[in-house]
Input
Amino acid sequence: MSSLLRTLSPYNDRPYQNGGGNAFSVQSPSHKVLSNGKSSSPLSPFFTGALSQKNSRKSMSSWKKLFLMCLIFFSLGFLLGMAPFGGFEDVKGRDFSFQESFVPKEVVEEEADAKKLLVVGRKEEEEEVGLVVDKVELGVVEEKEVKERFDYVPRKQLIVVTPTYSRVFQAYYLNRLGQVLRLVPPPLLWIVVEMNAASLETADILRKTGVVYRHLVTTRNLTDVKDRSVHQRNTALEHIEHHKLDGIVYFADDDSIHSLELFESLRGIRRFGTWPVAMLAQNWNKVELEGPVCNGSQVIGWHTNDKSKGLHRFHIDMSGFAFNSTILWDLKRWQRPTSDPIRQLDTVKEGSQRTAFIEQVVEDESQMEGIPNSCSRIMNWHLNLEAHELFNAKTWLLQKNLDVPTRPQGVTPSNPP
Output
């Protein structure tokens, strides 16, 4: 039976390319494997070939997909790279640094000197050739202007107090003083005080001057007032003390003439400063001088006139001194003996009002400082130019098609309405 199976076996008579003989022997391991039930089929070569062709097709399709994807991404990247999203100037104008780099001061100075030498060399070459490059010159000028613009110098505030009242030349006086104060470098505060009510005309003048101002009113009965300007100045002093304004207080009458040099000198006052004032005599035939005699900044005497000789201690005009405003409200700083408010007194004689007020601010001449040096310059003038015969004509008329006002019959300057 075993011989029959051998003769019927399909593998016995099949020759092999590598040589003759049986493909498998009984003792070979492969025969054992096939004998265990996993015998090979005659269709196995067909299936293996089909599987190999299928795998090769899959590999070919995957390579095609990979190539297409690479081609798509390459085209997309190329298009994005060529798109105009920004220019080179935008990138140059931006600062992408995250921290400031420390540059030694010596290196900065050497670079600045090198730039200056380069500019000078360019200018010399341009002069030889006959060309002018405006950019280089403008750049140097702009640097200087920027430095001057940002060189801030702190200045002391000036508090200018002006009592005023309604009269013919009031508008002229206020406009003249306002135009002078407009030329004074800030900070400056102009306190204008009127009696009983603030007039619209005065308020309109103050607004047009362009000066920082405060318009105050003194409410007092005129029948009990000897000198209205005394109460007007006291109203301003109360305002300064109440709001604790810090600066140099100066009483500037509206009918006086002031120079810009005066206001520049006021900022250097520490406590109390004084200077000589030129006054025109009543008969207008001579000029009188009233104020301090100085040795440097030290007050050593006084200029006097015939009327003020021997009547009071300090021969100073009201527009001839200024003082620190903190004296009014900072008692500890100036070691004032009393806490009484510093005010002008209406109960003393007219010639002694200035001396009584100054004695509340300083004790003697040692606490004063004369300005300018040696009190050698006249910086303001007090002129008595009031026209007493003129008046505010309320009944004057302006007829049609006329540029000249006319007044009604029976109204004359000597006979006011």
About this structure: DSSP finds 13 helices and twelve strands in the chain.
